[in-house]
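Backbone-to-sequence.
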């Protein structure tokens, strides 16, 4: 169940940021593009998604239904992943990181 969710989120991020590189940072999968873009990881009952504090803040209203912190959000494994929202957040982060060039 967790593996399927991780593969789904990875594919979604790859489609939203096709030029990003994939790596492992902080022990979890990470996409980078002009710096860290997003991180994600699988846990017993949720997928952790880490789009930096700015990614959380920009989508605070949409993310309010999930448990979140300053730079992270938890998507429960017993509910469908919000792939459209993840796409929007990743595209936001791509634009944000590209501004710093």
């Amino acid at each position: 169940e967790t593996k399927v969710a991780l593969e789904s989120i990875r594919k979604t991020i790859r489609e939203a940021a096709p030029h990003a590189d994939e790596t492992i940072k902080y022990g979890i999968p990470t996409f980078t593009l002009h710096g860290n873009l997003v991180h994600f990881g699988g846990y017993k009952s949720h997928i952790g998604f880490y789009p930096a504090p700015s990614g959380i803040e920009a989508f605070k209203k949409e993310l309010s239904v999930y448990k979140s912190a300053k730079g992270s959000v938890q998507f429960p494994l017993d509910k469908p992943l919000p792939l459209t929202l993840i796409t929007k957040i990743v595209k936001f982060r791509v634009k944000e990181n590209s501004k710093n060039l």
